[in-house]
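User: Can you recover a sequence for this backbone? Please restate the input before giving your answer.

Assistant: Of course. Working from this structure:
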């Protein structure tokens, strides 16, 4: 199967060179192409991708038709449209679409495994693991422990029991069948631009559309595991910020969009995912209760009345609670340490209990921040976005407009403001005929937007109604339709015969 690897970027020109060079050099699977997304106002990244495009025949730039940053999902949607144009221009077809980030290290066998499991599945998720770091890197170590546990235990069990497989955002392969179903069902928004966790959302969407999914079991190949490897945040504050977005998207925004109305089996998995928000708020205090109970138990034992009655009742209850919590905490830490030991070795796993305590405070602050940000956004009536999001429907015509703009040296994009006085410089009937709209008069020029490049005939007719020199600006058909609806009065035929 020919595969298209989508890589959305924003100001990552220093990273993308290493990513592409390394992965092309190490991949054993050869039938794939990189489509790397960038924004026109990110010149260093555009230059880096252009350089890679010249060096490697299977690397292609996918420039968005608007400035960024927007959201990862929005960039991915435009990369998909660029892939469709590439297929038209080269009479080819990609059977799989994979998503990756600029910092990903793709295992040399990963694409082979994706191709193998795609025989029976429309979504194939390759495991994701954090790259190893020193035990002193507590914050990054939390990611090492958690991903080891998720990939070795939680995700395989979830898949086996019929739960939908949430995409990890990287190492996810979608069949063309799944991609086209998503495009049809969601108006070309294969990845939802307004969603904070579009990867999680897509896992559910694919399942709901009746497509088969699989989480590939983590297995060794030689001396390494077949998994996508990358570094995660090493700073406490950065980790809290990232997990705030995860919590808002998975626990709150997903609840808002889907509620509990799905099938019973999927509702159970929604509950498992969403309950972590409450768990993360309580866990640090349960750890404190455990320490208090343990200290109380030691004190009562030292007083030779470990389970005394009467006046010692106030010490017995905390001690008993401490014993129960100790057992549960010890079991949880043992499982996590065992998973970490399998991936990173026993020495690294020995510090898993310390990292569990550290991670509980990261998750606590992230959960509290998620609830606060979500509540504040709702009170203010603002959308839940972590970056500016483009709310138009992706389509190939917009990318063609971008190419025309560069070829004819015409500015491209929706004007920041429109002067209603300027819109009347040309009769509405004429404006509708040529699909143009005057929007500004400045320095002796009449600025006009349109969805098609200006022809000689168009310019000759427009000049009949204005003594100003006309300057053209291109917009997408969707943007022009919005502008025409707002600024061009319907039924104005006063100048149609002038």
């Amino acid at each position: 199967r020919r595969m298209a690897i989508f890589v959305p970027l924003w100001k990552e020109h220093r990273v993308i060179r290493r990513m592409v060079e390394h992965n092309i050099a190490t991949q054993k699977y050869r039938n794939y192409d990189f489509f790397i997304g960038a924004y026109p106002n990110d010149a260093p990244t555009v230059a880096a991708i252009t350089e890679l495009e010249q060096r490697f025949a299977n690397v292609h730039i996918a420039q968005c038709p608007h400035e960024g940053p927007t959201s990862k999902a929005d960039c991915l949607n435009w990369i998909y449209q660029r892939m469709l144009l590439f297929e038209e221009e080269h009479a080819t077809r990609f059977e799989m679409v994979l998503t990756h980030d600029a910092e990903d290290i793709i295992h040399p066998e990963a694409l082979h495994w994706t191709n193998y499991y795609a025989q029976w599945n429309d979504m194939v998720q390759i495991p994701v693991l954090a790259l190893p770091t020193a035990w002193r890197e507590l914050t990054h170590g939390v990611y090492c422990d958690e991903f080891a546990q998720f990939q070795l235990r939680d995700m395989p069990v979830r898949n086996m029991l019929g739960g939908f497989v949430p995409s990890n955002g990287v190492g996810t392969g979608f069949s063309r069948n799944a991609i086209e179903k998503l495009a049809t069902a969601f108006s070309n928004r294969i990845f939802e631009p307004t969603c904070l966790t579009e990867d999680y959302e897509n896992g559910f969407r694919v399942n709901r559309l009746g497509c088969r999914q699989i989480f590939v079991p983590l297995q060794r190949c030689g001396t390494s595991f077949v998994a996508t490897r990358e570094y995660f945040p090493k700073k406490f504050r950065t980790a809290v910020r990232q997990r705030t977005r995860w919590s808002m998207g998975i626990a709150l925004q997903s609840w808002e969009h889907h509620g509990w109305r799905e099938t019973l089996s999927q509702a159970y998995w929604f509950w498992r995912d969403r309950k972590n928000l409450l768990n993360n708020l309580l866990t640090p205090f349960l750890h404190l209760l455990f320490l208090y109970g343990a200290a109380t138990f030691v004190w009562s034992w030292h007083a030779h009345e470990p389970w005394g009655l009467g006046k010692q009742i106030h010490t017995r209850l905390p001690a008993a609670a401490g014993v129960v919590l100790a057992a549960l905490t010890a079991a949880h830490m043992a499982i996590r340490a065992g998973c970490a030991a399998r991936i990173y070795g026993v020495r690294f796993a020995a510090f898993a209990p310390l990292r569990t305590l550290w991670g509980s405070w990261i998750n606590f602050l992230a959960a509290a921040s998620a609830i606060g940000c979500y509540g504040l956004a709702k009170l203010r009536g603002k959308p839940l976005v972590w970056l500016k999001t483009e709310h138009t429907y992706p389509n190939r015509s917009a990318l063609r407009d971008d190419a025309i703009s560069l070829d004819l040296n015409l500015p491209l994009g929706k004007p920041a403001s429109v002067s209603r006085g300027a819109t009347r410089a040309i009769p509405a009937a004429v404006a509708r005929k040529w699909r143009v709209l005057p929007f500004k008069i400045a320095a002796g020029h009449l600025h006009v937007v349109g969805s098609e490049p200006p022809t000689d005939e168009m310019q000759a007719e427009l000049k009949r109604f204005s003594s100003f020199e006309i300057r053209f600006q291109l917009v997408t058909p969707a943007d022009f339709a919005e502008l025409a609806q707002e600024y061009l009065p319907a039924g104005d035929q006063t100048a149609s015969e002038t």
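That completes the design. The chain has 17 helices and 14 strands.
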